[in-house]
Structure to design on (503 residues):
C-alpha cells in the first residue's frame, strides 16, 4: 500500500448534522477525503455512515454543516446532480435494470446520440474501452439479468469509472465476491487512486481495511470519533473506537451440545439445472452446520430446495425421521423450517412498510383472535420483542424498514423467523454487511438457539466466520457435496481444496 497523498482535500464535509423525528442521526460529523487516497469510513450499523452519504448526494437535506467539493461549497439536490459533478457511488444493494443490456445500464440517462437517435456503435465502443482498461470480461450487449452478482458489482464500478468521478464511494463492494474477484477489485480501486480519485471505502471486513486503505474516519452513534492515517492502528483499537468498548473475542465461546439427528437429507436434486445434484447430509439437534464453497458452488440452492422455493426432482427430506414434502415456503414454515435469505432487499424485506409488518409477516396466523381480527396488543408485544432481543436501532415500530441500516434490517428479518419458533433455521450470509459488534450479537443468538436444540445451517463466504461458529462444515463444489469436515479438525486450505474438487 502506498500513501501518495497531497495536502488539499477533494471533499470536505464539516459539522454535518441531520435530525429525524425522535432521533438525531448525525451530530456535527466530519469527513475529509484527499486525492490519490483510499479513505475507510467505519462504524457500527446505525452509526450514521449511510445518512452522511445521503446528505452528500442530496437524498437528505442536512440541518447543519458545510460541504466543499473541488474547492467550492456545494449542496447537491439529487444523486444525478452529484454524479454529473463527479461524485459516484457503488452501492452494496445493486439497483440495475435487469432486462436491459450491460451498456444500456452504464449509459442510462446519457446515451450518446447520432442526430436524434442513440448511437449504439459508440455506446458499445465506449463500454468496451472502459472494460478493457479495467480488465473486465463481460459482453456489453448481454442482458444484466444473465450476469452473476459479482459481475453486476463490476458493472457498477465500470459505471462509476465512466463518469470520470473524482470521488468514488464503495459500500461493502466485496460482500458478494470470491477471493479472486476481490483481488481484481483491488486492482481496479488502485487504478482509480492512481488517476487522482479519492475513494471512500465502507467495509466491515477489517482485513480489507488494513490492506487497501490509507486513512480512516470512525463514527459512533451519529458522532464523529476520529480521522487519522491507518498506519499505527491495529484491529482492536478500531473496534474499540467503533463500539465504545473492548471486544476481545470475535466469536463467543461455544457452549452448544450436539445431540441426535434432527434432519436427514438424502440424494436431493433440484429440478432446474444447473443446480444441486445428489446432495446428502445430516443435521443434529444443537448443531451449527456451516456451508462453504466458491461463487457458483450452489450453496444457496440447497436451502432454497429445502425451503420449497426450488422444486426438487428427486431426494427425500426427513425431519425427526418422518418425510416432509416442503412443496412451497408455506409448507416449509408449517413444518418448522425458516430461511433468512442472502439478498435482503430483493427477497428479505418490504422496504416501504414498517418494522411491525416486516417483523410479523411470517407469523400472521398467530395474531388472529377467535373473531378473525388481529390482536394489536400481541402484535405490538412481539414487535417489541424483536426490537429488544435483536438490539434493533429504530425510533419507533412504525419506522419504514427501508430507512434502517442494512444490519438493523437483517436483525428484524432474523427476529421475524424466530417468532415462528422453527426447528430448522437456515441462514444465508447472515452477517453480510454487518459490523463486528452486531456480528458478535448474532453469533451469541445463534449459539443460544443451538443450546435450545435447534438445528442451524449457516451459508457464509467468510472463512473465519465458518471456522469460528460452526461444529461441522459441508463443502459444496459445482452443485455437489465435496466433503463434510469437523470444524475443530479442519483448515482453511482443506476447505478451499474441497471447494475446487469438481470445477
Amino acid at each position: 500500500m502506498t500513501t501518495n497523498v497531497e495536502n488539499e482535500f477533494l471533499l470536505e464535509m464539516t459539522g454535518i448534522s441531520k435530525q429525524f423525528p425522535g432521533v438525531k442521526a448525525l451530530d456535527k460529523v466530519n469527513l475529509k477525503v484527499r486525492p490519490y487516497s483510499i479513505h475507510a469510513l467505519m462504524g457500527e450499523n446505525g452509526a450514521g455512515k449511510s445518512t452522511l452519504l445521503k446528505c452528500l448526494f442530496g437524498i437528505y437535506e442536512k440541518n447543519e454543516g458545510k460541504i466543499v467539493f473541488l474547492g467550492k461549497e456545494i449542496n447537491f439536490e439529487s444523486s444525478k446532480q452529484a454524479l454529473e459533478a463527479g461524485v459516484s457511488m457503488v452501492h452494496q444493494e445493486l439497483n440495475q435494470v435487469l432486462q436491459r443490456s450491460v451498456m444500456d445500464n452504464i449509459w442510462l440517462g446519457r446515451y450518446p446520440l447520432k442526430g436524434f437517435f442513440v448511437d449504439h456503435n459508440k455506446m458499445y465502443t465506449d463500454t468496451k474501452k472502459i472494460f478493457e482498461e479495467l480488465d473486465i470480461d463481460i459482453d456489453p450487449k448481454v442482458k444484466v439479468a444473465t450476469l452473476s452478482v459479482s459481475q453486476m458489482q463490476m458493472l457498477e464500478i465500470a459505471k462509476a469509472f465512466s463518469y470520470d468521478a473524482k470521488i468514488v464511494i464503495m459500500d461493502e463492494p466485496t460482500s458478494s465476491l470470491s477471493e479472486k474477484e476481490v483481488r481484481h477489485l483491488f486492482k481496479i480501486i488502485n487504478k482509480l487512486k492512481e488517476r487522482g480519485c479519492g475513494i471512500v471505502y465502507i467495509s466491515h471486513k477489517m482485513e480489507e481495511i488494513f490492506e487497501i486503505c490509507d486513512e480512516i474516519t470512525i463514527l459512533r452513534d451519529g458522532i464523529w470519533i476520529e480521522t487519522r492515517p491507518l498506519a499505527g492502528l491495529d484491529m482492536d483499537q478500531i473496534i474499540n473506537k467503533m463500539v465504545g468498548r473492548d471486544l476481545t473475542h470475535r466469536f463467543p465461546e461455544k457452549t452448544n451440545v450436539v445431540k441426535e439427528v434432527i434432519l436427514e437429507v438424502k440424494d436431493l436434486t433440484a429440478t432446474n439445472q444447473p443446480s444441486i445434484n445428489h446432495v446428502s447430509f445430516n443435521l443434529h439437534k444443537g448443531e451449527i452446520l456451516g456451508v462453504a464453497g466458491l461463487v457458483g458452488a450452489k450453496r444457496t440452492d440447497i436451502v432454497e430446495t429445502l425451503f420449497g422455493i426450488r422444486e426438487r426432482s428427486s431426494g427425500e427430506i426427513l425431519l425427526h425421521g418422518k418425510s416432509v414434502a416442503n412443496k412451497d415456503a408455506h409448507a416449509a414454515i408449517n413444518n418448522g423450517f425458516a430461511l433468512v435469505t442472502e439478498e435482503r432487499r430483493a427477497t428479505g424485506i418490504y422496504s416501504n412498510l414498517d418494522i411491525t409488518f416486516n417483523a410479523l409477516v411470517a407469523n400472521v396466523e398467530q395474531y388472529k383472535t377467535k373473531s378473525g381480527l388481529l390482536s394489536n396488543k400481541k402484535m405490538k408485544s412481539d414487535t417489541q420483542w424483536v426490537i429488544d432481543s435483536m438490539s434493533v436501532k429504530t425510533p419507533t415500530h412504525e419506522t419504514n424498514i427501508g430507512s434502517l441500516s442494512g444490519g438493523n434490517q437483517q436483525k428484524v428479518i432474523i427476529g421475524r423467523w424466530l417468532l415462528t419458533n422453527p426447528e430448522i433455521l437456515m441462514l444465508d450470509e447472515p452477517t453480510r454487511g454487518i459490523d463486528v459488534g452486531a456480528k458478535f450479537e448474532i453469533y451469541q443468538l445463534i449459539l443460544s438457539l443451538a443450546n435450545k436444540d435447534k438445528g442451524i445451517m449457516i451459508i457464509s463466504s467468510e472463512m473465519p466466520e465458518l471456522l469460528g461458529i460452526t461444529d461441522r462444515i459441508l463443502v459444496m463444489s459445482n452443485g455437489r457435496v465435496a466433503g463434510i469436515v469437523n470444524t475443530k479438525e479442519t483448515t482453511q486450505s482443506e476447505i478451499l481444496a474441497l471447494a475446487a474438487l469438481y470445477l
Q: What stands out?
A: The first strand starts at residue 11 and ends at 20.
